[in-house]
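Write out the bound-state structure for fe (ii) ion.
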Amino acid sequence: MIWKDKYLIGVPLIDEQHQELFRRVTDFVEVLRSRDEWEQKVDKVNETLEFMKVYVVTHFEDEEAYQREIGYPDLEKHKEIHNNMIQYVVNVAEAYEQEGFKEDLMQRFAGKLLAWLINHVAASDQKIADFANRKDVSGNDE
Amino acid sequence: MTNKMLAPFSNATREVFKLMLDLDVVTETPEVIDTIVGPNDKLNISIKVVGDLSGEIFYRFPKETTLEMVKIMSGMEFDQIDDFVTSAMGEIANIISGNALIGLSEQEVTCDILPPQIIVGENGADTQEGNILSTTVRTQIGDVDLDIILHSSVDK
Ligand SMILES: [Fe+2]
Ligand SMILES: [Fe+2]
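---
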């Protein structure tokens, strides 16, 4: 797994979800990159894709709720980034189904998803933690 | 105007390489050149810019550098530039360019970017002519070329 502790933001729920996302993306990429024939891995790929479609939305909602709770000033901008990603995932999943579950689209999807996730968690989500620290609020004590 | 245009892109490259890949970079002093002769054997990623400035940014990654970067991100070995690799690298170019636009907006320059175009291998990149601001970003896993062709669309 490609998780790094520098990605922690100090809010247990969000940190656990990020770690789960990294675990799932790693699994997804591992299956996708294995040397097996596409027919042998397509079921596992589809299963992971279905899981991520749901999990990403859950995580984004929880993260936005936390931002609202601490009065994060860039909530709307952050939400827009989340919504664009959800839209991208939905579009890819649709195209993937329509064209009959082909491998090259999934390869492109996984490459972009991996880079997007690393940057989003390391840069954009980290700004939430920076704000919380400056404001000296903690997500731990509710 | 020219160096002011480059700085947001080279700063964004440095920050993104550090944040996403844990790579430290040294950026060469930029040069203004008239022609870049294509094709080459690198992974060429072009991002079109529209708005107050219009033009195109080229990121050129050597093959070994590309494969190493994807390895850093995924923890897995890659031996060729395939769909997964070009898509991951396209997203990196997209992230760098997006961050650079935030830098430009601090200079009151408002632009947008289009999705990355990827040109790889023998088909290579087209020859480019014009006022090209060119620099090399040196890293321990290889040198990335950054070529910027941007013109002001408004009189400032
Ligand atoms: Fe997040
Ligand atoms: Fe987020």
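---
Residues A 18, 59, 63, 121, 125 surround fe (ii) ion (ligand 1) (CB under 6 Å).
Chain B touches chain A through 20 residues (CB under 8 Å).
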